[in-house]
Write a structure and sequence with these properties.
Layout lengths: L5 H7 L5 E7 L5 E7 L1 E3 L4 E5 L7 H8 L2 E10 L3 E14 L2 E2 L5 E2 L2 E12 L11
């Protein structure tokens, strides 16, 4: 069973491809960056990767402190914000399989500990579509 609700999974799989990852730097300050991501149904995690990823500040921050926050959000007109917020523990992996089975040199894999969402009610009537 997933930590994500059915509506949260529907939203995450809807195609919103940009999220914001918050890590903590060596001085204890937050570091927040936009990033691409994928939901991994095999591990029930959020997987984040990118170009030369093992050499990024976010990757180094996770190696030093695994506590992270991650947000995927958007706004529907006229003003209807939707969001899935994930707080959890991340691993900085030097190699891993992406959800589609392809290999990645380095990723951050977030294991959710707490998920909070809002504005997803419009997805309730789309089951099976």
């Amino acid at each position: 069973m997933s930590i994500f609700s059915e509506l949260e999974l529907r939203y995450l799989n809807e195609g919103v491809s940009l999220g914001r990852l918050a890590t903590i730097d060596a001085q204890g300050r937050p570091h927040v960056v936009p990033t691409g991501w994928n939901y991994n149904p095999t591990t029930d995690t959020i997987d984040i990767g990118g170009r030369d990823f093992a050499n990024t500040r976010k990757f180094r921050n996770v190696q030093a402190n695994p506590k992270v926050g991650f947000v995927v959000d958007d706004v529907l007109p006229p003003w209807k914000p939707r969001c899935v917020q994930v707080r959890g523990t991340a691993e900085a992996l030097l190699s891993a399989a992406w959800p589609d089975g392809s290999a990645r040199d380095a990723i951050i894999r977030i294991t959710p500990e707490k998920v909070v969402s809002w504005g997803l009610e419009d997805l309730a009537g789309t089951a099976g579509e």
